[in-house]
Design a protein that fits this description.
By secondary structure, the chain is an all-alpha fold. It folds into two domains: 3-160; 213-263. The chain is built from ten helices and no strands.
C-alpha cells in the first residue's frame, strides 16, 4: 500500500468520525439539554455552537468529498492495471458501482442536512425548526453510509471466486501426483505377463497371502516353499533317470536287442 492511499484513507476516516460524532452528540446530548433550559437560553446556545461548529462541519464535508472521490479513482486504476488479480468483471460481480452510487447519494443528503442544522440561511430554516427530528434522520443516514462503506471496504480484496494462490498450487501438485500414478500404472500394464515383478528396490514383492505377517515369518515360508520345490524337482529327476535306465536294460535283454541297437 502506497503512502498516498494511506493518507487519503486516514483523512476519510477522521472526517467521517468528526461529522458523525458531532451529529450523535447534538442529537442525544446537546439538543435535549438545551430544551430543558428554556427557549431563550436554547437559542443563545445554538447560536454560540453554530459559530464554533460550522467551520468543522464545512471542513469535514470538504475532506470527505475530496478523499472519497480520490480513493474511488485510485481503486479504479488499480483494478484496471491488474485484471488478473481482480478479475475482468470484478465491478459488475461485486456491484461496486451501485454501492458507491447509493453511498454517494446518501452522503450528499447528510451533507445538506448537516449544513442546514448549523446554518443561518432562510432556505434551510425549516430544518432548524424541527431540529431534533432532522437530527435523527441525519444520524440514521450517516450510519447507513458508514455501513455501506464497511461493506465496500471488504470487497477491496478482490472478487471471491478468483483462484487462491495456495489452492492453485495445491491443485497443481495433486494433478502432478495423479499424472505420475497414471504413468506408473501404464508401465505396469506394459510389463511381460507371467514373470515375477520386482518392487522398487529390486526385490520380489510380498505374496498376497502374507499381508499382516512379520517379515521373518514370510521369509521362513519362502525358504520352506523353496526346499519343498527342490525336493520335488530332485524326485522327478531321479524318476526320469530310473525310467531311462530300466528301458535300456529291457532293450538289452530282448532277443537281438544288442544287434538291433548296434545297427
Amino acid at each position: 500500500m502506497d503512502p498516498v492511499t494511506v493518507l487519503l484513507r486516514w483523512a476519510h476516516v477522521l472526517a467521517a468520525i468528526t461529522a458523525l460524532g458531532g451529529l450523535l452528540f447534538a442529537r442525544f446530548a446537546f439538543v435535549p439539554a438545551a430544551e430543558e433550559l428554556g427557549a431563550e437560553t436554547a437559542d443563545r446556545l445554538h447560536a454560540g455552537v453554530r459559530r464554533r461548529w460550522l467551520p468543522w462541519v464545512i471542513g469535514a464535508i470538504t475532506l470527505l468529498l475530496a478523499s472519497g472521490l480520490a480513493n474511488y479513482i485510485l481503486l479504479m486504476r488499480r483494478v484496471k492495471a491488474d485484471p488478473e488479480l481482480w478479475g475482468g468483471d470484478w465491478m459488475r460481480q461485486t456491484g461496486y458501482h451501485t454501492l458507491f452510487g447509493v453511498k454517494f447519494l446518501l452522503a450528499l443528503i447528510v451533507f445538506y442536512l448537516a449544513s442546514g442544522l448549523v446554518g443561518r440561511g432562510a432556505g434551510t430554516q425549516w430544518i432548524r425548526d424541527a431540529r431534533k427530528q432532522w437530527l435523527s434522520v441525519t444520524v440514521g443516514l450517516g450510519v447507513a453510509v458508514v455501513l455501506i462503506s464497511g461493506w465496500m471496504r471488504q470487497l477491496h480484496t478482490g472478487v471471491n471466486d478468483l483462484p487462491d494462490p495456495v489452492k492453485a498450487y495445491a491443485r497443481t501438485y495433486l494433478d502432478d501426483i495423479e499424472a505420475a500414478n497414471a504413468a506408473a500404472g501404464r508401465d505396469d500394464d506394459d510389463a511381460p505377463r507371467g514373470g515375477p515383478r520386482s518392487g522398487p528396490s529390486g526385490e520380489n514383492p510380498r505374496p498376497a497371502d502374507s499381508e499382516g505377517k512379520p517379515d521373518s515369518e514370510v521369509k521362513t515360508e519362502r525358504e520352506g516353499k523353496t526346499d519343498a520345490q527342490e525336493k520335488i524337482d530332485g524326485q522327478e529327476a531321479k524318476e526320469a533317470d530310473g525310467g531311462a535306465a530300466s528301458e535300456d536294460r529291457e532293450a538289452a535283454a530282448a532277443p537281438g536287442g544288442g544287434e538291433a541297437a548296434a545297427r
